[in-house]
Amino acid sequence: MKNEKKKKSALLEKAGISTPEIISSIAVEQIQKHRKIQPSSKNLIEGILSGNISALSRAITLVESTNTSHLAKANEVINACLPHANKSVRIGITGVPGVGKSTFIEAFGKHLTSLGKKVAVLAVDPSSTISHGSILGDKTRMEELVKDVNAYIRPSASGETLGGVARKTRETITLCEAAGFDTILIETVGVGQSETAVHSMVDFFLLLKISGSGDELQGIKRGIMEMADAIVINKADGDNIKKANLAKVEFNRALHLLPTKKSGWTPTTATCSAITQNGIPEVWKTIENFLELTKGNNYFFEKRKEQNQYWMLETINEHLKTNFYNHTLIQKLLESTKKAVQNNEISPFAAAQLLLEKYFKK
């Protein structure tokens, strides 16, 4: 046994020739240098109006920036794009997580591009309240649409905004319209908070449902039902077709119990399958019927005027809030006031009133 030679392990390998660096350090340096160069407002505007996706993406990033130094530049770009905007159809799409929003949007978007439409998808991805991170994985679910030359998908983190949509989403719509996109799809987080904000920036509000989510009583006690212009039961395929049709009947009953809409439009219910494409063309036909009616009775244009006014007031509120928390005096007083509230030395309401008085007397 001692004289036996030890067998070499098959896992051992002879040292080979090291692989040379395939990335040039000079190229890396040039790329990093180029990224640091910020395009001027003029370059961004020209790029957007010519349909340059890179310029559009950089402009959206500028609009989403929380850096106050970017605000003036962002406003300049938006104001220049305004005369070229407002020529699209804005569609809000919402539903609970798991209803298949991303899959539906891909199937719906591909149908629209096959009709010659240019589609922009603004997908809001939920941010973690703990790590503040976001997956931004919507493009992963839309493998076919992301490769379509007539489609643009922009995932954005919801951040601290309620429901994930606010002024930045509204301004992104303007930039996409100026870039030549005639159909804007806005996908919400789907947590039940963002529906009001989305409704205030779109022309048509689509609610996706799945079978087994409740009867008509469950439907009418949710405010979202009153905002929906159409309810579509998704995943109506395979063994689920019968359940989807039953759900359609239930939701149709629920809609008839709701007040009449100012638009004169009667909300519809339908079933579809994003996998088999069944029902997808009918959804677009419903939207076309809605547009024909609301443009004919002028509701479409009046609603957009109201939305512009709404977002002006929302922007004022946002700027007041930002200026308040960024003010030097408030930053000095805030921590001590928080501790006083925690120790029950002063009520939260009195503390808020005190800080506001200090701010307005600055």
Structural class by secondary-structure content? alpha/beta
SS elements, strand count: 7
| CA gyration radius, whole angstroms | 26 Å
Strand content: 5-15%
Short description:
The protein is α/β, with parallel strands linked by helices. 49% of the residues lie in helices and 11% in strands.
Note down, in words, how this protein is organized.
It is a single chain. 49% of the residues lie in helices and 11% in strands. The protein is α/β, with parallel strands linked by helices and 362 residues long. It has a 7-stranded parallel beta sheet with strand order 3-2-4-1-5-6-7, with helices on both faces. β6, α11 and β7 (268-271) form a beta-alpha-beta unit. α5 (101-114) packs across α12.
Secondary structure blueprint with pairings:
Layout: H1 25-36, H2 41-49, H3 53-64, H4 71-81, E1 89-94, H5 101-114, E2 119-125, H6 138-141, E3 151-157, H7 167-178, E4 183-187, H8 195-199, E5 204-209, H9 216-220, H10 223-227, E6 230-233, H11 241-255, E7 268-271, H12 280-296, H13 299-326, H14 328-342, H15 348-360
Parallel strand pairs: 1-4, 1-5, 2-3, 2-4, 5-6, 6-7
Main attributes?
single chain; 362 residues; alpha/beta; seven-stranded parallel sheet; 7 strands
